[in-house]
Amino acid sequence: MAEFEKLLIVGCGNMGGAMLAGWLAAGEDPARFEVLDPALESAPAGVVLHRSAPANPDHDAVLLGFKPQQLPALAPGLQGLASEGVTVFSLLAGIDLSMLAGAFPSAAAHVRVMPNLAARIGKSPVILAETGLTAPQREAAQAMFGTLGTALWLQDEAQFDLVTALAGSGPGFVYRFIDALAAAGTELGLDRALADQLSLAMVEGAASLAAAADASPAELADRVASPGGMTREGLNVLDDDNALKSLLIATLRATAEKGGELARQAREQG
């Protein structure tokens, strides 16, 4: 974090907390982080917790982690924390770069950031889109967020809500699938505790294998499914009339469209 020596996290909820935990677990110095959150019970050891905006801030980057609908109300009071020379990183779903620049016009640069909760264990994709970063700052941001998993720059910001739906909201859909798989096994006669254990272990193993494989997930599915066998019979149900694909298209579309709705709400309140 050479370019960003001190990061102030404004609103350290589930996502901000997961990122902070991920950085600390990776060995980052707690003194590099400060938190501004009036509702947070406590901060990790070595991390300064502010209940109100610090009078003499010394950070060179701010990470916004509150609800996107709160931006119009909170931005005026945060202007002093996003002054000249400070980079604003934002976790606010639906709030685009132009809106960030409008809310914090004095900041040196503005960056949208979208991880997921796996940042806590260094396994999150982290989507980035920026305006105003220098080349060294871009490299520093890549390294900083790469510590939390895999940092990827998005060239077309118009796709940010869709990417957020897939990679940011995606864990929620996977968790729902795991739960549904266990519930289906229970409905057909398995003990629920056993079904839960089997479903979770299966998904963990399958994901690890897919990440390390030299074949696509589609190819791996076909390798598991012998012609005329049990797995193929189940895949036939999922593949019938593109049932699973159609369901996920509708899921991602609804999620991405919510990002646009959040942005409209913020503009209307601004």
Protein architecture, described:
- The chain has helices at 14-25, 71-78, 97-103, 135-146, 160-168, 170-187, 192-212, 217-224, 230-239, 243-269, and strands at residues 7-10, 33-36, 48-50, 61-64, 87-90, 109-114, 124-131, 149-153.
- It has 270 residues and is of the alpha/beta class.
- Strand 1 (7-10), helix 1 and strand 2 (33-36) form a beta-alpha-beta unit.
- The mean pLDDT is 94.
User: How much is the average pLDDT?
Assistant: 94
What separation lies between the terminal Cα atoms? 33 Å
Percent strand:
5-15%
Can you tell me the residue ranges where pLDDT is under 50 for at least 5 consecutive residues? none
Estimate the helix proportion, in percent: 40-55%
CA radius of gyration is 21 Å
Name the strands of the widest sheet in spatial order.
3-2-1-4-5-6-7-8
Describe how the helices and strands are arranged:
Blueprint: E1 7-10, H1 14-25, E2 33-36, E3 48-50, E4 61-64, H2 71-78, E5 87-90, H3 97-103, E6 109-114, E7 124-131, H4 135-146, E8 149-153, H5 160-168, H6 170-187, H7 192-212, H8 217-224, H9 230-239, H10 243-269
Parallel strand pairs: 1-2, 1-4, 2-3, 4-5, 5-6, 7-8
Antiparallel strand pairs: 6-7
